[in-house]
Amino acid sequence: MLPSAVEIFTGQKYSAEDNALAEAVLSQVKKEEHHDNIYVIDRGLQSTRTMKDFEEKSLKFIIRSKEKRKFEEITSFIEKETPVQWNDWEVIKDSKVKLYTGKPIQNKRGNIHHREEKVETDFRLVVIKNEKTSKEFWFITNEFELSAKEISDYYRKRWDIEVFFRFMKQELNLSHLVSLNKNGIEVMIYMTMIASMLLLIYKKANDLGYKTAKRRITMELCDMITAILIVFAGGDPTKVFKT
Known about the structure:
Layout: H1 17-31, E1 38-41, H2 48-56, E2 60-65, E3 71-76, E4 85-86, E5 89-106, E6 112-118, E7 123-130, E8 136-141, H3 148-157, H4 159-170, H5 182-206, H6 210-232
Parallel strand pairs: 1-2
Antiparallel strand pairs: 2-8, 3-5, 4-5, 5-6, 5-7, 7-8
Helix pairs in contact: 5-6
């Protein structure tokens, strides 16, 4: 229900999500040794080298891949006689694969170009298709124990993150940064995260929607602060608030 960590990056190299996401995930892993987490990541991370690094560190992941990326199929897990389907979805590929990456090569003039190279690490490619829209979703993972549907369901859970981002921006006004230096950004982010956790706990405890929870907790906090000020001023808050 609650966010577990925040990482803030300001360096130019972190404008590439491949760099920022990989470092954020690995820093979280260092804090939680011997965990059983499965990290679910959107299309911001596509580096095969990073996926190989995750595998070598025994870090389980499910990444939504860009469609039609190059791979070499090693083994197919699909049984043609019993296709895997649920609702409007069908698994059209579920295979052990090897992926390709670009290896940087420096020529005689000192220029860098990338040569395509196959990575000798086994990954799993799952492709599901919506029968109504013909939309395909490609997933790359190093998890071979889960079913294709479970992998799809795990990824759907990631939508909770998008809902949380929208909640932070719309309900807690985290749409504009009031400071552009790292310390100022960290203060603003952490204060907003603390407020979000208190509000989410209140929402959960009272079985409310986001807007109602925000309105009610604001009213209750105002009453509480007013009562505290009355006490400090030597007054009796019970004469102001009906109990």
